[in-house]
Specification:
- The structure is a single chain.
- The protein is an all-alpha fold.
- The protein is built from five helices and no strands.
Length: 142
């Protein structure tokens, strides 16, 4: 696995977590809106919807927990790798591109923070990936 693939997997996990979280919130909001709280007996339709929503929400919550655990493990490995990066510019680009919250991962935002052109940042990114690849290969990280 290349350094870029390794780092992008972390971003993919983070995106899946955001997706599952939003879906759980949507399901729970829909279920809350379909509950009848007047105390009067009604047909099975609404309670079935609520039950299905609860099951779906619980399934997604379990998947979310698994992804959060994977994310934590991957983040720990990435933090260890970044701790071994020797160049400040390489470290900064990798941290902003792969670890920092999503809005900072755009090339132009990284360039703005680093006071460099986007082309310079992309060149630094390439150098940083080569440095990370050496670390991954040396330590046998998968």
């Amino acid at each position: 696995m290349t350094a870029k693939e390794f780092l992008k997997e972390y971003r993919l996990i983070r995106s899946k977590i955001e997706l599952y979280t939003a879906e759980i919130e949507k399901i729970e909001a829909q279920a809350a809106g379909s509950q009848n709280i007047d105390g009067q007996p009604h047909g099975k339709g609404k309670s079935d919807k609520v039950a299905r929503a609860a099951v779906r929400s619980a399934d997604l919550a379990e998947k979310l927990r698994v992804l959060q655990f994977e994310q934590e493990k991957r983040r720990d490995v990435i933090i260890d790798i970044l701790g071994k990066v020797t160049s400040y510019d390489n470290f900064t680009v990798l941290k902003m591109r792969y670890i920092d919250p999503r809005p900072a991962c755009d090339w132009w935002k990284i360039a703005d923070v680093m006071d460099k052109s986007t082309r310079q940042v992309q060149r630094i990114h390439g150098e940083a990936l080569m440095e990370v690849q050496k670390i991954i290969d040396t330590e046998g990280i998968e």
